Amino acid sequence: MNPVLPGSHPDPSVCRVGPDHYLVTSTFEYFPGLPIFHSRDLVHWRLLGHVLDRPSQLPLQGVRASGGLYAPTIRHHDGVFYVVCTLVGGQRESGNFVVTATDPAGEWSEPRWLPEADGFDPSLFFDDDGRAWWTATREVRSPGQTEVWLREFDPVRLKLVGEEHVLWRRGAMHNAVWLEAPHLYKVDGRYVLLCAEGGTDFEHSVVVAFSDEVTGPYRGSPLNPVLTHRHLGRDHPIAATGHADLVCTQNGQWYAALLATRPYGGYYYNLGRETFIVPVSWENGGPVFSPGTGRVETSYPAPDLPEHPWPVPAQTDGFDSAKLDPAWLSLRTPEEPFWSLTERPGHLRLRVRPESITDPVTPSLVVRRQQHQNFHASCVLEFTPSSRVRPPAWCCCRTTTTTSGCCSAPGVRLPWCGGSADVTSCSRRPRSRTVRCGWG
Hints:
Layout: E1 13-17, E2 20-24, E3 30-31, E4 33-39, E5 46-52, E6 68-77, E7 80-88, E8 95-101, E9 112-113, E10 120-126, E11 132-139, E12 146-154, E13 159-169, E14 180-187, E15 190-197, E16 205-211, E17 219-220, E18 227-228, E19 239-248, E20 254-261, E21 274-283, E22 286-289, E23 330-331, E24 339-340, E25 349-350, E26 377-382, E27 396-397, E28 405-409, E29 412-417, E30 423-428, E31 434-439
Parallel strand pairs: 27-29
Antiparallel strand pairs: 1-2, 2-4, 3-23, 4-5, 6-7, 7-8, 8-9, 10-11, 11-12, 12-13, 14-15, 15-16, 16-17, 16-18, 19-20, 20-21, 21-22, 24-25, 26-31, 28-29, 30-31
């Protein structure tokens, strides 16, 4: 069953409301932001939509590649869903914010920006005494050295109140870097602080600390890291495990949603950081990830929940709907319409504009995630070539900062940005405006 969300779905956060589980992931500089998924069995997930789907909610203009939305957390309390997140490198707004909704499918509120909340990777914890707490990470001293801090959160006024408390500094391992992604839980009367450590690549890990009081002091577990794959080597099929969030099913089973990568063709992971689900047990008050193996597996026994599959998403898109399928994204927030599904029904019309994919702008571009190591993709482009404008392109990107190669055909240029598939066809019939392109 793993990954449960293939393709770029990093930094997962999950919560449960009755029999329903909801999960959000990071989207960085892409719009709409923060996809929200729904599951009733933790195996099958459906995309409900996006938390930030209106331009007014998400000012991504000018954000650098891999800037934007980092590490959301989703929580539910007293009939209200809360998502907190960080916008990194925003030119109009930047920093931490909170949005709310009574229906996770939307619509969600406009962001409430919190200038008093510094750092990144925020999370919310609702204690059983009715108080709510905000945790986050911030850098201290040298780059990569961080601390986790806590402050009370007012869920009505959506602001931080009271004094600040530093919960954990320097992390579990000596000279560790990037102690981040803090989440608080209360298990059997004791507070559990779960964090990521080591950075988000090969040395990524999950670490844990405990306290009898929500404000600390917290003490790291002698078993840290409680999950990592860095000792398995770069040839292991799953790498970079970390950034976990815990959820308890209605039947009392614990699971973690976390990110990991699946390198192939060497230590390359064009699929990005994906979402995995791992069983968790508790021993002596601490979490045991993937009991019996201690590593993330590709499959586990299904949770003790009624199986609940959803309709399988269509593998093709004929653009015959009134709205663009939510699987499609644009690069940064569009400030003007550059596409239409109504001007020519059954087609996606993109307006040619001078903006480039490699600049911190919003080009006339729609993209979707690569979700499989082996795949075939194809499309039909119809246009009238002109030397005065940049021609349409059919591209596969891992990053938009560089274009590493291209495939050309009469009247069309196909950038290839850090991909690994082979372009299998690109042709145009004589005197025709139609170009058929594919790779696999």
